[in-house]
Design brief:
Molybdopterin-guanine dinucleotide biosynthesis protein MobB; six-stranded parallel beta sheet; alpha/beta; 23% strand; globular; MobB_dom; MGD_biosynthesis_adapter; 169 residues
Length: 169
Amino acid sequence: MLGVVGWSGSGKTSLLEVLIARLAGRGLRINVVKHSHHDVELEPPRKDSARLRMAGAAEVMLASPYRVAILRELRAGPEPALAEHLARLAPADLTLVEGYKWERMPKLEVFRPSLGRPALYPDDPDILAVASDGPQPQGPSGEGGPAWLDLNDPDQVLAWLDTWLRPRA
């Protein structure tokens, strides 16, 4: 599992699209957990599955020959923990988690200085690498920090990911 974190608008989803396409193209099975702070509407309100959910069903599984979706209504209950979501996923070679920036897990930060938001890596020891469109800040000599990757060079990010995955394979 690898978290991909960063502020909204930093390019996390765009980077993930490229990485997932290339990894899946190699035959790897990739799962993704995408966190959203917004209400998510996955089905038109008049469809049968929405009507059943709105009638009070705790969960509705929508199954077709093309995909399966499980919609769970929290009904003002607590948001499930990331671990609970991960437990529901099928086995995969790699699970990428977009969001959940404050969870403890190995992470890749997507950082764009132009957004005017602070980098996360100085305060998060779980960030192993930073993919950025800006130069690496100079720190005290001898201080180890995360790998600094060019966000505009997906091959470089993929090479880092391959190196990180190798001992976990």
